[in-house]
Amino acid sequence: MSEHYFSARPEAASAPRTVRLTLPDLDLELATDTGVFSAGHIDPGTRILLANAPEPSVRGDILDLGCGYGPIALTLAHRRKRARVWAVDVNERALELTRRNAEAAGRGNVRTATPDEIPDDVRFAALYSNPPIKVGKAALHAMLLRWLPRLLPGGAAYLVVQKHLGSDSLARWLTEQGFPTTRLTSERGYRVLAVHSRPDPGDDPCTNSAAPS
Ligand SMILES: C[S@@+](CC[C@H](N)C(=O)[O-])C[C@H]1O[C@@H](n2cnc3c(N)ncnc32)[C@H](O)[C@@H]1O
After folding, report:
1. What separation in Å is there between the alpha carbon of 211 and the centre of ligand 1?
2. Angle subtended by helix axes 71-79 and 92-104, to nearest 10
3. What predicted TM-score, i.e. pTM, was given to this entire model?
4. What is the 8-class DSSP label of residue 9?
5. Residue 94 and residue 69: Cα distance in Å, rounded?
6. What spatial distance separates the first Cα and last Cα of the chain, rounded to whole Å?
7. Which atom of ligand 1 is nearest to the CA of 67?
8. How far, in whole angstroms, is CA 38 from its chain's centroid?
9. Rounded to 5°, angle at Cα 183 from 87 and 30
């Protein structure tokens, strides 16, 4: 049986190579390897996310959820040089590649970590992800419900998901969970979703307004 890209310790023999990430604002050669997602080329969904997702609208840490070899984390770290960018994955080979890619690019603001290594008090101004749809709906939902509540007020998550892999039903489900979700763009069968942090009840103008004098 072929190995999943989300194995914690891929067993496939290492076969290092590089791919080129070329965007209007950066050009990077990234190390990749067997056993990680899209090892032979930058995934088209990742490219569409990076071309369309806005930069964070509030200040704070940034999360690349499911970083693979790091194209999203490194791009955000380049665009937001003063922000700390957490590159998180369950695949140790992917984390090591991201660490090396960040070092080679001189991006000291990237921190690689497994999900359990992120301190509980860290909150995120923005989350970017090409999420691991292949883990199955229950695991995907659990992963999103673990991290979305950690968005700062005014923060947002940007997810790229293929239409035929359920982007529209995921958007509806996220909205039902209390994370208002809109479609930012639709391109070549991929949707980029913008998921907003849960509105803070304290911000409700009906409950928060000063008593009339
Ligand atoms: C579709 S790949 C995207 C990789 C990379 N961001 C890219 O754009 O090339 C999704 C990644 O999520 C990781 N992943 C799977 N389950 C995860 C979890 N529970 N927490 C964090 N990352 C996870 C996988 O190992 C994989 O590297």
Report:
1. 49
2. 30
3. 0.93
4. S
5. 5
6. 72
7. 6
8. 15
9. 30
